[in-house]
Each structure stands twice: as structure tokens, then as C-alpha cells.
Amino acid sequence: MMWMMALALQAATVAPPHCPLDARYDPDNPFAQILAGKAPASIVAETPDMIALIPIAWERPGHVLVIPRRAVRNLDDMTATEMADALLLARRIAAAQRRAFGNSGYIIQQNNGGGAQHVCHVHFHVIPNTPVEKVEHATPAQMQAIAQRIVGALKADAALPEH
Fold first, then answer.
1. Is residue 17 part of a domain?
2. Which residues are catalytic?
3. 7 found inside a domain
4. Taking the CB of residue 89, how many other CB atoms lie within 10 A of it?
5. Assign residue 45 a region: left if phi > 0, alpha if psi is -120 to 50, beta otherwise?
6. pLDDT band at 159 (very low <50, low <70, confident <90, very high)
7. Which residues pair with 126 in a beta bridge?
8. ∠29-138-91 over CA atoms, to 5°?
């Protein structure tokens, strides 16, 4: 009986969604600020339509976010070309993470609406399966150190023949 009350209490305390699917795009969100040059970022890779950067918080070192340059709320608003570009860049980042951190796998995660999406600008998490080292608010130096490792691995990967 206690477990039923615990479940009821948990259901009653679920946080409201940060970014409902029908929300308007917020031009003041953190990624919009980065894209506008109003906030700093540790960028590891860029394409004409996407950037990859180190997040301010992570559970595993080497975590990277891939975001479109265009103001896009969620996956529903992305074009097919943007989706392909995002995943191609995520794949490049995953290869660089393996070179930089020696991880044997990775997760690509993308959240939409509900309580899962915390920034209302679509983004893809590329998370290496490195040991957990949770950081709630990284310093610029911590972010830059991770970025340098990934950038170095991307440069080394660029020298390899295409497959």
C-alpha cells in the first residue's frame, strides 16, 4: 500500500514541461544567445547549418551538443536536410570522442517537449560511454579542455582516408 501512495505522490509532483511542443521559439534561449554571439561557447565543430559544442553540464566527459544554426524549437520543425546534417555531424563527433577518450560506445539522444526538453532549441546529445564524472556547472576552462581534446581528434580524423 505504501508503494501506491509513493507512486501517487510522485505523479502529483511531476514538473511542468520546460518546452511544450506547441511553445513559441524563445529567441533568448541559451543556444540562441550563443548563435548570436552574445554568450560564450566551446565550439568543437561547425558546418554551414550546424555547430557542435560542449554543454555547461554533463554526466560523462566528452559530452557534446549538436545544434542547428537556424532557430528551430524541436525535431518537428527541422527540415530533412537539417536532420541529416545533424546526424552526420553527430557521427563525426562520436568518432572523435572515441579517439580522444577511448570510449567503446556512445549515445545519441534528442528530446522533444514534455519534461525532457530543457532548452527550446532543438539539440542532439552525443554522449560517450566514458566513466561518469558529473559536472553541474562547468567552468570555461573545463569546457575548453574537453573541447581541445575533441578538436584534436577531429583534426586527426580529417587526415584519415574516407571510408
1. no
2. 123
3. no
4. 23
5. beta
6. low
7. 64, 108
8. 70
Q: Which domain holds residue 95?
A: 23-133+141-154
- In the numeric block, the cell 554571439 is attached to 37
Alpha helix segments (H runs only) across 13-160: 30-35, 80-101, 140-158
Instruction: Please indicate, yes or no, if residue 77 is contained in any of the structural domains.
Output: yes
Q: How many domains does the chain have?
A: 1
* Measured distance CA(136)–CA(104) in Å, rounded: 24
SS3 for 50? Answer: strand
Global pTM value: 0.86
Given the DSSP bridges, would you call strands 64-68 and 50-53 parallel, antiparallel or unpaired? antiparallel
**Could you read off the pLDDT of 47-106 as tens digits, one per residue?**
999 999 999 999 999 999 999 999 999 999 999 999 999 999 999 999 999 999 999 999
- Specify the 3-state DSSP secondary structure of 53: strand
Single-letter code of the amino acid located at 38: K
* Residue 36 CA: distances (Å) to CA of 15, 78, 114: 30, 19, 26
Q: Count Cβ atoms within 10 A of the Cβ of residue 9 and give its class: 0-12 exposed, 13-18 middle, 19 or more buried.
A: exposed
C-alpha distance from residue 141 to each of 39, 56, 156 (Å)? 15, 11, 23
Q: Is residue 10 part of a domain?
A: no
108 phi, psi to nearest 5 deg? -110, 120
CATH number, residue 148: 3.30.428.10
